[in-house]
Amino acid sequence: MEQRISHFLQKYVTEVYFPNIRITDIVEVLILTFLIYQLMIWVKNTKAWMLMKGILVLAVFILVAAIFQMHTILFLAKNAVTVMATAAVVVFQPELRRALEKLGEKSVLSSMVPFDTTRDRVRFSEDTITSIVEASYSMGSVKTGALIVVEQAIRLTEYESTGIHLDCLISKQVLEQIFEHNTPLHDGAIIVRGDRIVSATCYLPLSDNMELSKDLGTRHRAAVGMSEVSDAVIIVVSEETGAVSVAHSGKLLRDITREELRASLEQIQNRKVESGKWYSLRKGRRKNENKTVE
Ligand SMILES: Nc1ncnc2c1ncn2[C@@H]1O[C@H](COP(=O)(O)OP(=O)(O)OP(=O)(O)O)[C@@H](O)[C@H]1O
């Protein structure tokens, strides 16, 4: 029996090609899997999906041209490739920029850069948290809409300049006053840096995430859009329902409780514990509640 097995192994198994796999190959496969997965999510969530469909149609067209030997079409297609690649970079400039900003945002990278002083500039006081939480729920109770952007490491100067410059210490009363209906500063968003409001009536970029609930209007889309292009935390108070939601990293936690809002602000108060905890808050909500997330 043993002889037969060893004969079998010698005859067949030795002829099978086993590549020499090193640990770096496994790491490489894992990295590529992760990158391709992220790319697929990105394609699905942006207008790149439409472009992909367009490219597929073009590819089929070119294939047909190749089968039937249509030389002029093939010549044009060959020469248009470079132009189309350049056009894609121009069309997707905002998305590519967001993707690169996200990469630079990762805590791993920033911890490797010793001169990255932005990490020390992200704290705000307990009073600021209390003021934001109290004002949000107080405005929610009387259905006053609000949009509050809490800046973190990424400077929001370009969005700040779309609004009216302010330099005002945060308090519940100030926030309520700013978002009061029919007052000059109530429209748009305010930007909070540290313990101060630096700008009001700011215009934020709208998200083009197709997975966002259709019952969300532009205020919520602006909150998600801002969280896609920066590491800021954005608080939205709905004028329609009074519900308080919070956007971060392209995700929207809808209709959160006072405690959850406080917890998410406390997480960014000290950025070192940021990402893991934020994730666990989202996971906890998914498990325990039926409220819509995203
Ligand atoms: N791009 C933007 N940047 C900043 N603020 C915006 C932007 N778009 C809309 N807003 C604010 O949202 C208000 C309109 O909200 P809209 O009713 O469309 O949104 P919503 O998500 O349904 O919110 P709500 O539940 O409060 O009605 C505007 O008056 C403006 O204050």
SSE diagram, text form:
Layout: H1 2-11, H2 23-45, H3 48-67, H4 71-91, H5 93-105, H6 107-112, H7 126-141, E1 146-150, H8 157-160, E2 164-169, H9 172-179, E3 189-193, E4 196-202, H10 218-229, E5 233-237, E6 244-248, E7 251-253, H11 258-269, H12 274-288
Parallel strand pairs: 1-3
Antiparallel strand pairs: 1-5, 2-4, 3-4, 5-6, 6-7
Bound molecules: adenosine-5'-triphosphate.
Brief sketch in words of this structure:
The protein has 294 residues and is an alpha+beta fold. It is 54% helix and 12% strand.
Describe the structure.
By secondary structure, this protein is an alpha+beta fold. The protein has two domains: 2-117, no CATH class; 122-291, YojJ-like (1 (3-Layer(aba) Sandwich). It has twelve helices and seven strands. The chain has helices at 2-11, 23-45, 48-67, 71-91, 93-105, 107-112, 126-141, 157-160, 172-179, 218-229, 258-269, 274-288; strands at 146-150, 164-169, 189-193, 196-202, 233-237, 244-248, 251-253. It has a seven-stranded mixed β-sheet, sandwiched between helices. Helix 7 packs across helix 9, helix 7 (126-141) runs antiparallel to helix 11 and helix 11 packs antiparallel against helix 12. The termini are far apart. Mean pLDDT is 81; it is low at 273-277 and 283-294. It binds adenosine-5'-triphosphate (ATP). The site of adenosine-5'-triphosphate (ATP) has 17 residues, from helix 10.
